[in-house]
Amino acid sequence: MNLENTQVQMRKGILEYCILNIISRGEVYASDMLEELTSVKIMVVEGTLYPLLTRLRKAGLVEYKWVESTGGPPRKYYTLTNEGNDFLKHLDNTWKDLVESTKRIKSSKKSK
């Protein structure tokens, strides 16, 4: 079994949840999301972020607006839609349940 592959799969499993949490704080530029995700070791590949943002937009969970930049081309800033906020609330509950379930499993002693 490949440890690194399992670790990557675990990170991928929570990536969408982490992205929605970052966007929930307010307007955010994709490279800022990438920087934060990379700094906390959730994601290190830029090519993963943009397709996921497109999928979230097509699902109606996020939207973006173009903002002119003084130092280059316009930038897309992402925000959550109302549907995205509701979706994130449900994911928050799921996350809490998963954390609690994992804690119980890890703390259970093997019975003989």
Task: Provide an overview of this structure.
The protein has 112 residues and is α+β, with helices and mostly antiparallel strands. It is built from four helices and three strands. The chain has a three-stranded antiparallel β-sheet with strand order 1-3-2. The two termini are 28 Å apart. α1 crosses α4. Helix content is 63%, strand content 17%. The longest helix has 26 residues. The model has no long low-confidence stretch (mean pLDDT 91).
Topology:
Blueprint: H1 3-24, E1 28-29, H2 30-39, H3 46-58, E2 62-69, E3 72-80, H4 82-107
Keywords:
single chain; 112 residues; alpha+beta; three-stranded antiparallel β-sheet; 3 strands; globular
Order of helices and strands, N to C?
Answer: HEHHEEH
How much of the sequence lies in strands comes to 15-25%
Number of continuous helical runs: 4
Largest sheet: 3 strands, antiparallel
Uncertain regions spanning at least 5 consecutive residues: none
| Helix/sheet category | alpha+beta
Q: How many β-strand runs?
A: 3
Strand order in the largest sheet: 1-3-2
What is Rg?
Answer: 17 Å
CA(first)-CA(last) distance: 28 Å
> What average pLDDT do the residues reach?
91
